[in-house]
C-alpha cells in the first residue's frame, strides 16, 4: 500500500462533501490501521487519511434504476381533489383565525371602554365626596369663633359655675 494517496482532513472533507468533524471521527475509528498516517507538528498531531478508505466509506454504490411508476388517472384525479379539499380547509382555518383576531381586538376595545367608564364614574364620585367635604369644612369654619375673640375661657367658667355653682 505504498502507492496510496493520502489526504489531509480538510482536503478529504472538501473532496467528499463531508464536515471536517465527520472525517475526524473516521480517522479516530481507523487510527491504528495503515489507512491513517500521523505527523507531529508544533500544534499537535496532523493526520492524513488514505483515499482508498474514503472511497470505501463514502462512495455510494450505484443504485439500479427503478422502472417509472405509472399512476392511473383515477388516482391522479382523487389526489387533485384531496389537494383542493386541503387547500379549502386551510382557507377556512385562516378565515376563522382572522375572525378570532378581530373578536379579540373588539373585546380589548370594549374592555378599555368599560375601564374608562368605570374610571370616570369613580372620578365623579370622588369629586362629589370632595364637594361634600368642602361644604362640611365651610360649615365648621363658620361655627368656629373669630380668631381674635377669646370666648373659650368664659365658656369654661360658666361650665364650672353650672356644674359646681361657683
Structural commentary:
- This protein is mainly alpha-helical.
- 66% of the residues lie in helices and 10% in strands.
- It has 5 helices and 3 strands, in the order E-H-H-E-E-H-H-H.
- It has helices at residues 9-16, 20-29, 51-58, 73-143, 152-164, and strands at residues 6-8, 36-41, 44-50.
- It has a 3-stranded antiparallel beta sheet.
- The protein starts with 5 loop residues before the first strand and ends with a helix.
- The mean pLDDT is 83.
List keywords for this structure.
166 residues, mainly alpha, 3-stranded antiparallel β-sheet, elongated
Quick one: overall form? Answer: elongated
Order of secondary-structure elements: EHHEEHHH
Strand order of the largest sheet: 1-3-2
Total helical elements: 5
Mean pLDDT: 83
* Strand-residue proportion: 5-15%
Radius of gyration: 48 Å
Residue runs with pLDDT of under 50 for 5 or more positions: none
Main β sheet profile:
3 strands, antiparallel
Q: Which structural class should the secondary elements be placed in?
A: mainly alpha
Helix content: 55-70%
Number of strands: 3
> Terminal Cα separation, in Å?
140 Å
Layout of secondary structure:
Blueprint (H helix, E strand, L loop, with lengths): L5 E3 H8 L3 H10 L6 E6 L2 E7 H8 L14 H71 L8 H13 L2
Antiparallel strand pairs: 1-3, 2-3
Helix pairs in contact: 1-2
